[in-house]
Amino acid sequence: MVAAGMGVTLVPRLSVPADALTTQRRRTSDDPHIRYLPIRSEDGVPTPSRRVVLAWRRSFTRYEAIAALRNAVYACELTGVQLLT
Q1: What are phi and psi of 27, to 5 degrees?
Q2: Longest Cα separation, the chain
Q3: pLDDT bucket at 34, cuts 50 / 70 / 90
Q4: Considering the entire predicted model, what is its pTM?
Q5: Which residues contact 48 (CB under 8 A, 6 or more apart)?
Q6: Would you place residue 40 in the very low, low, confident or very high pLDDT band (cuts 50, 70, 90)?
Q7: Rounded distance between C-alpha atoms, residue 18 and residue 15, angstroms
Q8: Read out DSSP for the chain?
Q9: How far is 76 from 39, CA to CA, in rounded Å?
Q10: What is the pLDDT of residue 56?
């Protein structure tokens, strides 16, 4: 429906192609009906955000797998991501 010009949708910023965030018109070259617009607060209200947590059971025996996943996430250079310690 979005591509047909009959709807809108919200997508996480990480799902938006990097070139769509840097272009002045914020459009993809593939489809003229799709525009990526950032959510901005005009009255000081915080913009929507989410917290993603990596959690596991104490009895999980493969700590190396968790450490590898954590290190892979830390190694990514993702725009708009704030790492919490």
Answers
A1: -120, 155
A2: 51
A3: confident
A4: 0.49
A5: 39
A6: confident
A7: 9
A8: -TTTTS------GGGS-HHHHHSSS-B-SS-TT-B------SSSPPPP---------TT---HHHHHHHHHHHHH---TT-----
A9: 23
A10: 92
Tokens 């968790």 found at: 66
- pLDDT at residue 66 in the model: 92
Tokens of 39: 């959510």
Tokens representing 15 are 């799902």
Question: Amino acid identity of 69?
Answer: L
Residue 28 carries which side chain, given as an amino acid letter?
Answer: T
Dihedral pair phi/psi, residue 37, rounded to 5° = -120, 130
Mean pLDDT, range 47-74, rounded to an integer: 88
CA end-to-end span of the chain: 40
Q: Is 80 exceeded by the pLDDT of residue 20?
A: no
Q: Which residue has the tokens 């809108």?
A: 8
